Amino acid sequence: MKKLLVPVDGSECSWKAVKTARLFAEAVPAEITVVYVIPDLSMYHAYGRDHTYEKNLYDASRYRAQGILDEAQKLFSDYDAGNVHYITKSGEPAAAIVECAKDNEMDTIVIGSRGMGRMARLLIGSVSSKVVSHAPCSVMVVR
Known about the structure:
The chain is of the alpha/beta class. The chain has one domain (about 5-140): HUPs (Rossmann fold, 3-Layer(aba) Sandwich), CATH 3.40.50.620. The protein has six helices and five strands, in the order E-H-E-H-H-E-H-E-H-H-E. The chain has a five-stranded parallel β-sheet, with helices on both faces. Strand 1 (about 5-10), helix 1 (about 10-25) and strand 2 form a beta-alpha-beta unit.
């Protein structure tokens, strides 16, 4: 595992994934990319909202993304800074994570699990489940 992708969303499970990736990287030096995906907000325009509302939502999402990436950066503050990268992507989260893994030729995705109930998972699925199904590399799901 030389290139790890770690998606974060601010949830407890995503922070566990960050800490797990850090442990792996300390054992076997690795390049880590922490990614935050801003969900596609264009659907709000379809419900009669104007572009200003959509832009405000996007700006708030970018602000949240930066705050979460800043927190991740603190967790890696004493790790080799040249080997940790922070990026923000937009789109459907699972698809954006898989695309990021492909584009950057990642060896492993370390992703947090979410505790969805069976019915919710059946109806909408989870990001981690979709990533496991479509990833071009190994995926470690952290609980």
